[in-house]
Specification:
GO terms for molecular function: transferase activity. This is Glutathione S-transferase. Keywords: Transferase. Pfam families: GST_N (PF02798). This protein is mainly α. It has a domain of 106 residues: Glutathione S-transferase Yfyf (Class Pi), Chain A, domain 2 (Up-down Bundle). Helix content is 52%, strand content 4%. The chain has six helices and two strands. It has a two-stranded antiparallel sheet with strand order 1-2. A hairpin with a 2-residue loop joins strand 1 and strand 2. Helix 2 runs parallel beside helix 4.
């Protein structure tokens, strides 16, 4: 699928998304795609839309045993993992003491999620089995943020997984865009 990337750089002072995004979508957030008259935001929706446009080599066949693992991880990325990871990031930016009730809850959820993920990756090369899929794309960003926060130090399977992902040619090409 041919594409053209338009970068909308954050405001240097506020670090917020630029108002130019609001001209494309009322939420003024990225990522957003425009294609054939459709304007779509939300990472998972964008991936599903792209997969629907062509060959589905990033989505297991619905008849395969890996399909339901694919579905789980496509939704786990933003439905379960992203909230505690982003909350932890924001709490660090706030320089919290770590003893508020929410802090304990977030720590518990992060440990639960990351332990589960690490145990799954001990058994599989990728989230949906042996095949790289869109679920891996969805999971990578939150796992990379978790790594940057020092949350993966005792998670060897997640670390190995991220190294495999980061070694992919497509990943390196995507990183060129920022």
């Amino acid at each position: 699928m041919p594409y053209h990337v338009v970068q909308h750089l954050r405001d240097e002072t506020t670090k917020l998304a630029p108002t130019s995004l609001g001209k494309i979508h009322p939420l003024n957030k990225a990522p957003i795609i425009e294609h054939n008259g459709h304007i779509i935001c939300e990472s998972g929706a964008i991936l599903e839309y792209i997969l629907d446009q062509g060959k589905n080599d990033l989505r297991p066949d619905k008849q395969s045993s890996d399909y339901y693992a694919y579905l789980e991880w496509m939704h786990f990325a933003e439905g379960s993992l992203a909230l505690p990871v982003i909350t932890h990031l924001l709490m660090q930016m706030e320089t919290r003491s770590g003893d508020a009730p929410l802090d304990g809850y977030i720590t518990k959820e992060l440990n639960l999620d990351l332990s589960y993920i690490d145990s799954i990756l001990a058994q599989r090369t990728y989230f949906a089995g042996a095949m790289f899929s869109a679920a891996d794309i969805m999971m990578t960003i939150s796992l990379e943020i978790a790594g940057s926060l020092g949350l993966l130090e005792n998670r060897p399977n997640i670390q190995s997984y991220l190294a495999r992902i980061q070694d992919r040619t497509a990943y390196k090409k995507a990183r060129e865009f920022g």
